[in-house]
Amino acid sequence: MMTEDLAQVLEGTPVSMKKAMDYFETELVKIRAGKANPAMLDGIVVDYYGNPTPISQVGNLSVMDARTLTIQPWEKNMLQPIERAIIASNIGVNPQNDGNIIRLFLPPLTEERRKELVKRSSAEGEHAKIAIRNIRRDAIEHIKKLQKDGLSEDAAKDGESEIQDITNNYITLVDRHLEAKEKEIMSV
Question: Which residues on adjacent β-strands are paired with residue 63?
């Protein structure tokens, strides 16, 4: 029974860490690196007949070029609500509405803005690492409790060592993602 509990801890830990990692990756995508990406509009909701609806469900999002996104609403009367939602979202882009389509021209990033974005990415990375370390701490506490309840010391040590290996892998993954994002942000 003890080894089953240990197996549960060893199986559950990477699953939890993967969730933390997925959240981190989602947050990184939202930090725009000067290149047009429809994902930067994720999280923006439009008032669609009284229902808050993701922007991607009221129109067609497409990338015109490296610095231009377009939104083609499926209904013409959605132009204003989409425009208002983008302005309210504070993503630092002013929508241009020509009566048919909304264009978002992304301004080139200044050196200062790039450094700000790198800082924001690093902060997201730090949050992810903290989440991963908290998951590690909980797993190790659980193993120590199992040891108190009769799990052998060797099994406990092996379990803790495995948890630490999993943690190290995820922390390395966070660092790799941050490195790639920094390169993306700093490349002009």
Answer: 69
* β strands within the chain, DSSP E: 45-48, 51-54, 59-65, 68-73, 95-97, 102-105
Beta carbons of 55 and 71 less than 8 angstroms apart = yes
Are 43 and 58 part of one and the same domain? yes
Q: Among 93, 82, 22, 89, which Cα is nearest to 47's?
A: 82
The strand pair at 68-73 and 95-97 is best described as unpaired
Residues 56 and 18 in one domain: no
Per residue in 24-72, pLDDT (tens digit) is: 998 887 776 667 778 788 888 998 888 898 988 999 999 888 788 899 9
Q: Which domain holds residue 68?
A: 38-105
Six-digit token string for 39: 């994902």
